[in-house]
Amino acid sequence: VEGAEAVAGDPAREAALFHLYNHLAARGGRLLLTARMPPASWSLRLPDLASRLATLGVVRIGPPDETLIASVMLKAAEDRGLDLAPEAVDYLLPRIERDFGSVHALVGALDAQALGKRRRHVSQRLAAACLRETNSSGDTATGRPDATPRSDAVPEPDATGSAPPPSTAGRE
Question: How far is CA 74 from the centre of its chain?
Fold first, then answer.
């Protein structure tokens, strides 16, 4: 049940979840609930539902890490027939939102850029141009215009398409 916390305060919905829980428990079934907060914080009015939900394990799932975001980006690009250069991925990672919708929107924009240039290879230079364009159009779903890239982020390519080497200042 996605967004299960929405049942709180609604007697009919609380009763429905209570009966679903009991139905599955009687038949050896399993129940997966997703919510932004754990059930203990839902302000449930049905005490029997609250006691049953209190027996459930709670797992907090944090935001996706860079490895997962990169994998999703590469898979989405592959699904569109794009060849996303490793340098492009390294360039984009510190500059995009950390959610799957934003990654898919960005890959869609990269696909449109590559199609416009009649190529399937997405270089770091094309990725940078695409990100600049989406940020200037106000599409904050694909970029983080207010974000400062990490100090180890891949630098933006210059007009020739080559990027200067990363600065070693402050590194030991």
Answer: 14
Tokens representing 170?
Answer: 């402050």
Render pLDDT for 68-86 as a digit per residue (tens, 0 to 9): 999 999 999 999 999 999 9
Q: How many CB atoms lie within 10 A of CB 124?
A: 23
Other beta carbons less than 10 A from residue 27's beta carbon:
7
Rounded to the nearest angstrom, the gap between the alpha carbon of residue 112 and the centroid of all alpha carbons in its chain is 21
- How many CB atoms neighbour CB 62 within 10 A? 5
pTM comes to 0.58
E strands, the chain, are 83-84, 121-122
- Could you read off the pLDDT of 137-167 as tens digits, one per residue? 655 445 554 444 444 454 555 444 444 444 3
